[in-house]
Design goal:
Alpha-Beta Plaits; 373 residues; SH3 type barrels
């Protein structure tokens, strides 16, 4: 290698050093890009019919591989270029930063590939997807926290290559107490959400695709990042909430232990309706429905008022959206049944005259009052 460098410098001795150096660096860039293009095409063809792991490895490794090859070719060019001490030190420092960046980038890509391959065995579109939602939530939060740590360590390692930052680091260690307090106060919101994310991954009060009621709105957990949660509301709006919200604020999780739910339908009928007929028709509607999961159907008289009785219908379905559809179907068909078979059972206002000499006048007055109201 030393002989090659000596021969090269003797061959280019007639050119100015800066021309030789720039030419070598430019050639190194073009040569590195050409090598990357050939290598990437070769790898792409090799994994074309392979499984997801190898295809993800090639896809996610494209850019880190390009940076690694360029770092190598530029390092070789810098080692044989007739550079002065100042430019040589600068280029070596830049290449060192590139090498650290390659390591961090590769670690982040490897983490993403591992999570992607691990999660492909779980199907979120299944009817009972509790296990899948558990693993997806833990993996996604773990990936984002891990990515944050990799980025932070990479940036810290790059900064520590600067002498000024190294001296500052020593001074910080000397006054770690004050610096720690100041840094903790400055980063409190971010650190609060990071630790909340770790707590969510362990305790899992929410998971991906959970049905929630937050801030008076119903929706599904669409995405969990390292600092916030995206809830897709029923009308397709998105509610963005910090991770700490789900640790500090009470909320409803309809699918915490499973996706199946029991829906409620309330109807108010006159006392003349036979409850047994309502119960029979409700069971018929449930058996005819494709949404009912064949688990819960019940009819109960839950309250009385001076004019109507309150009937509660309970019916179950496999998921929150299906439960909502089942409730709507039950309302439509039970109202149709009552209108057709028991129209007199719908709530109404009674006005009856007193049995005395002024009965006709009392009856007329009651009728006029009802018409005016």
């Amino acid at each position: 290698m030393d002989q090659f460098i000596a021969d090269f410098r003797a061959y280019t001795d007639w050119l100015p050093n800066w021309v030789v150096s720039i030419g070598l660096l430019v050639l190194a860039v073009f040569f590195g890009l050409a090598i990357h293009r050939l290598v990437f095409r070769l790898f792409t063809r090799l994994v074309e019919n392979k499984d997801l792991f190898w295809r993800s490895l090639v896809s996610r490794g494209k850019r880190p591989l390009k940076l690694a090859i360029l770092t190598f070719t530029l390092s070789f060019a810098a080692s044989i270029a007739p550079l002065a001490a100042g430019p040589a030190n600068f280029i070596r420092h830049v290449l060192l930063l590139g090498f650290i960046l390659v390591l961090g980038w590769s670690a982040k890509a490897a983490l993403h590939i591992w999570v992607t391959v691990y999660l492909r065995r779980f199907k979120l579109d299944a009817e009972d997807n509790l296990l899948a939602r558990t693993h997806v939530t833990q993996s996604r939060i773990g990936e984002r926290v891990g990515s944050f740590m990799i980025v932070a360590l990479t940036i810290a390692a790059m900064l520590m290559t600067f002498p000024a930052v190294q001296q500052y680091g020593v001074s910080v260690l000397a006054s770690a107490g004050v610096a720690g307090i100041v840094l903790g106060l400055a980063l409190q919101p971010m650190l609060k959400n990071i630790f909340a994310g770790i707590q969510l991954a362990i305790t899992q009060p929410i998971r991906i695709d959970d049905a929630l009621i937050v801030e008076g709105e119903w929706g599904n957990v669409e995405e969990i990042t390292s600092t916030y949660v995206v809830v897709k509301l029923w009308d397709w709006r998105r509610m963005i909430l910090p991770l700490s919200y789900f640790i500090e604020t009470p909320f409803q999780n309809w699918t915490r232990e499973g996706s199946a739910l029991i829906g409620t339908v309330m109807i108010y009928l006159d006392y003349s309706v036979p409850v047994s007929a309502i119960r029979k028709r409700v069971e018929e509607i449930a058996n005819e429905s494709k949404i009912w999961d064949r688990k819960v159907v019940n009819v109960q008289v839950t309250d009385f008022t001076e004019s109507v009785m309150q009937i509660r219908i309970l019916i179950s379905a496999a998921s929150a959206p299906k439960t909502f559809d089942m409730r709507c179907e039950m309302r439509e068909k039970i109202i149709d049944f009552i209108q057709r078979d028991y129209p007199a059972a719908l709530p109404r206002v009674r006005a009856e005259g007193a049995a005395n000499a002024n009965g006709a006048a009392v009856m007329d007055g009651a009728r006029q009052h009802v018409l005016q109201s």
